[in-house]
Design goal:
By secondary structure, the protein is of the alpha/beta class. The chain is 33% helix and 23% strand. The chain has a single domain, classed as Aldolase class I (TIM Barrel), CATH 3.20.20. Helix 3 links the parallel strand 6 and strand 7. The protein is globular. The protein binds iron/sulfur cluster (SF4).
């Protein structure tokens, strides 16, 4: 059966057996990141919208699980930022109620977490993961190319409040782009911010931006800065 929303089962990072769900028009995001694997953002917006009725999305998931495969995880993603989907919370709740053994995961850019209703909906998920690359506004603008209404401070405030409220698993990854956010100022700020956020897992990744790997001296500096932090760090450099 052809599916509109179910994108298939894969392993994603350290998660095995992940059923991907995409409910956004291509590509709808609050950002237009320079490294986005989905290409340029077609709809740059901060307005949430019910792109499809959550019932329609859920009914496909239910059909897939009943007829094909019961996955360990369902990843609520989208061609863009998943929390722009106004049906997000309803859909997440439906999955958890019908399939309590499946872990619901979201991968977000954290840009809307300063909104109370978004935190409430995202908080339904068992695992919240996402990217956060810099504490410097100029680097933030260069990498994320955000919609004007979203400032770095919105993202940082939202992450901090959410982390205090949420009792599920919270994971963050930082990609370093040679020549953009590979600054000592950013490293120091990231360490300080991440100590406040205290994620369950923090990934540090070489974006190999423009085909350029990070200099080895910078990688050594990153490792020394994050030495002894009270959370788990995994290096992909
Ligand atoms: S936040 Fe994610 S989906 Fe949006 S532009 Fe950036 S990488 Fe692409």
């Amino acid at each position: 059966m052809p599916y509109r929303f179910v994108t298939g089962v894969n392993d994603v990072r350290n998660f095995k057996d992940v059923l991907g769900i995409d409910f956004s028009p291509k590509k709808t995001c609050t950002f237009d990141c320079i490294n986005c694997i989905s290409g340029r953002t077609n709809i740059l917006t901060d307005k949430r919208d019910e792109f499809h009725p959550p019932n329609d999305v859920f009914s496909e998931i239910e059909t897939f699980v009943n007829e094909d495969h019961m996955p360990e995880h369902v990843l609520l993603t989208g061609s863009g930022e998943p929390t722009l989907y106004a049906g997000f919370g309803t859909l997440a709740r439906m999955i958890k109620e019908r399939f309590p053994d499946i872990k619901v995961v979201v991968y977000s850019n954290f840009s809307l977490l300063d909104r109370e209703e978004v935190r409430r909906e995202v908080g339904v998920c068992d695992i919240v993961a996402g990217n956060f690359y810099t504490v410097c506004e100029d680097e933030f603008k260069k990498i994320y190319r955000p919609i004007e209404s979203i400032r770095l401070q919105n993202v940082m405030d939202g992450m901090k409040i959410f982390r205090n409220e949420y009792d599920g698993v919270f994971m963050v990854d930082t990609r370093f782009f040679a020549g953009i956010n590979d600054t000592e100022k950013n490293l120091d700020g990231l360490r300080e911010f991440m100590e406040k956020i205290n994620p369950h897992k923090y990934y540090i990744i070489d974006a190999k931006y423009g085909g350029n790997p990070l200099p080895s001296a910078f990688i050594d500096l990153v490792k020394s800065k994050f030495d002894g932090v009270p959370f788990e760090v995994e290096y992909r450099v």
